[in-house]
Design goal:
This protein has one domain: Hotdog Thioesterase (Thiol Ester Dehydrase, Chain A). The chain is of the alpha+beta class. The chain has a ten-stranded antiparallel sheet with strand order 1-3-4-5-2-7-10-9-8-6, covered by helices on one side.
Length: 265
């Protein structure tokens, strides 16, 4: 597999407006799940998502390959992690521009076959004001048996919740995410091999970020997060915050996600 370096530097620009209704729906979706600060974090994932007709989607519900992202011929795409810097709160009623750029493409050989990592840098701005900057890491791979980490001992969680199909559906709608593993259980089980509906990686990061800021009582400035294994709907999810070290674990203590948060002084 070669030739993908020509895609590095490719850019995409989109614009959106954060409306009071979008903010209200985001808050309604997460309220009571985790504490929310005055300016909820990770709301930018609800803005300027690619809006494509059904004819431009792949079987999995993602945009078909070969648009902004390279047409890597590996069938599974996952959100592996990333890092976010929150520069300023998102303003209501103002045009917000998302500028996305393919920052790097790396190939490696994993235990179950080839892997391709694509780093995408995003900047959200309003006029000359930077609001959010982030780098997302996507991984493309071959189908492989689901790896669920061994159970581990764990302390007392900060918050425990049970994500259900309704939460996943509402979050998919908020972020205009068509990936079928989040709402089509027969597809998730029979095609992609999961034991149930999959909780969005960005949703887990959103829960950890907002919980961390609420616990710290200070504005969260930077978040680095990494997925370790999928969280599954209707299974308990434990969230831990400890001085900026964050974790999400499954019901039996297996690691789902880790994150590191830094705050304003």
């Amino acid at each position: 597999m070669a030739g993908w370096q020509d895609w590095v530097g490719r850019e995409e620009v989109a614009e959106d407006v954060l409306t009071p209704e979008t903010l209200r729906r985001f808050t309604a979706t997460l309220e009571g799940v985790v504490p929310l600060p005055a300016h909820p974090l990770c709301l930018h994932w609800c803005l300027a998502a690619p809006a494509l007709p059904a004819s431009a989607l792949g079987q999995d519900g993602h945009p078909a390959k070969g648009g902004f992202l390279p047409p890597i011929p590996l069938p599974r795409r996952m959100w592996a992690g990333g890092e976010i810097t929150f520069h300023a709160p998102l303003p209501l009623g103002t045009a917000i521009t998302r500028t996305s750029r393919i920052a790097a493409i790396r190939e490696k050989q994993g235990r179950t076959g080839p892997l391709v990592f694509v780093e995408v840098a995003h900047e959200f701005s309003a006029g000359n004001t930077m609001l959010v900057s982030e780098v997302q890491t996507l991984v493309y791979r071959t189908p492989a048996p689901l790896h669920r980490p061994q159970a581990e001992g764990m302390g007392t969680p900060t918050v425990s919740l049970t994500p259900d199909a309704t939460l996943l559906f509402r979050y998919s709608a908020l972020t205009f995410n068509g990936h079928r593993i989040h709402y089509d259980e027969p597809y998730a089980r029979t095609v992609e091999g999961y034991p149930g509906l999959v909780v969005h990686g960005p949703l887990v990061a959103t829960l950890l970020a907002n919980l961390a800021e609420a616990q710290a009582g200070r504005s969260l400035r930077h978040l680095t997060y990494r997925g370790a294994s999928p969280a599954i709907a209707d299974e308990t999810l434990h969230l831990f915050t400890d001085a900026g070290q964050l974790e999400a674990r499954s019901a039996n203590g297996a690691l789902v996600s880790t994150a590191t948060a830094s705050f304003d002084i």
